[in-house]
Amino acid sequence: MPELRLVLMGTGPFAVPSFEALAAAGYAIATVVTRPERPGPGNRPPEKSPVRQWAEARQLPVIAPDSINTTEAIETVRGVQPDLLVVCDYGQILKPAALAAARLGGINLHGSLLPAYRGAAPVQWAVLCGDQETGVSVIHMTPQLDAGPVITSRRTPIAAKETAGELEARLAELGVEATLEAVAALANLAQAVPTQAAPGEAAPGEAAPAQAALGEGLRGQPQDAQAASRAPRLSKADGRIVWTRPAAELEWHVRGMQPWPGAFTEVPAGEGRRAQSTRLMITEVEATDRAVPEQVAAGTVEIEGDVLLVAAGDFYLRLERLKPAGKREMASEEWLRGRPLRAGTVLH
Fold first, then answer.
1. What's the first-to-final CA gap in the chain, in angstroms?
2. Do 309 and 319 touch, CB atoms closer than 8 A?
3. Is the dihedral of CA 80, 24, 192, 210 positive or negative?
4. CB–CB of 77/31 below 8 Å?
5. Is the distance from CB of 36 to CB of 75 less than 8 angstroms?
6. Residue 272 and residue 288: Cα distance in Å, rounded?
7. What digits encode the pLDDT tens for the residues 98-138?
């Protein structure tokens, strides 16, 4: 295996399997870059990111700059003389000067089949959109978000009941082989790039001098920008269930919002002893083929024995599992035993 000196950049759990594989393969890891630790809620101490925990367990040097694009951070990375930056689930966009800190620039493992779902939440959006297939891509990075040429990719079907969290764990493992393949390819190509070539300062949108020496064809397959789609970061508010949507889309919504931010609805005030509306987290549903009558409002509850149905925009949605406010997750039939609501209630 040709020698290659790596700087690994990551924060979340998606990066850990590939980083571990690179370490186990014997690549020289000069340092690990991760996001700074943030104070927890209340008086809780800051939590270490999964990547930091992994790096410290392997006794690897770790840096956590507030921004990787500052002169100080770039000089720190350049100072360890890396051949290649390997980026995954890091959380910051690298500008041209940061990419130029390594002789061969950077590669990024992304959780979609690019150019589909460029952005911070590709796995969630694949589920939210009802896709039947997704995968991972390794790109040679450019300053544009997730727009670099694709070096290699892997495909996988999305299971009918698979949540975004379950899919993300599978894609993290699927990405191991793709990452190893991409790094090995660049390790072989690196022999064509003079080691004394200084990374230099790249102009906006351009590769560093040593990266350019690889040639466009050697850096991967260019993406079709016209086919690109976005996967913006989710917020807590995105979890709200809009009952006027079709039942199939609401099933995708519940799966795509797990484990965070979670799909939720509001039970209106006046049910039982409640003086105000309460939030109900929905964790598992199934679309039925039972059409909702025209006169029934979306969000209307129907109870048939221990089966909890809610009217969506076209068909009824069966609620299988849920988590009431302040309680544990449970099957809907268990929740119904406490008579928390009656038929005809309209969730919102």
1. 59
2. yes
3. negative
4. yes
5. no
6. 28
7. 999 999 999 999 999 999 999 999 999 999 999 999 999 99
* Residue found by looking up tokens 């800190």 in the block: 101
pLDDT value at position 220? 86
Residue 93: what pLDDT? 94
**With 0-12 CB in 10 A as exposed, 13-18 as middle and 19+ as buried, what is 197?**
middle
Contact 117, 41 (CB under 8 A): no
**Torsion angle, alpha carbons of 249, 252, 254, 257, to 10:** -120
**Distance in angstroms (rounded) separating the CA atoms of residues 348 and 344:** 13
Are the beta carbons of 104 and 190 closer than 8 angstroms? yes
DSSP count for the chain of H helices, then E strands: 9, 13
Other C-beta atoms closer than 10 Å to the C-beta of 192 total 10
Tokens of 17: 């399997």
Task: Tell me: cis bond preceding 222? Omega within 30 of 0 counts.
Answer: no
Residues with Cβ within 8 Å of 179's Cβ and at least 6 positions away in sequence, in order, are 18, 21, 22, 86, 88, 107, 109, 138
Q: Which amino acid is at 336?
A: L
CB 244 within 8 A of CB 310: no
pLDDT digits (tens, 9 = 90+) for 160-200: 999 999 999 999 999 999 999 999 999 887 776 655 444 44
- Tell me what pLDDT residue 138 has: 98
Amino acid at residue number 28: A
Backbone angles phi, psi at 99, to 5 degrees: -65, -30
Return the structure tokens found at 115.
């150019």
DSSP 192: G
pLDDT at residue number 269? 82
Instruction: Give the chain's residues under pLDDT 70.
Output: 1-2, 40-41, 192-219, 271-275
Note whether 95 and 17 are within 8 A (CB). Answer: no
Domains and CATH numbers, the chain: 5-227 (3.40.50.170), 236-336 (3.10.25.10)
Instruction: Give the C-alpha separation, 3 to 273, whole Å.
Output: 69
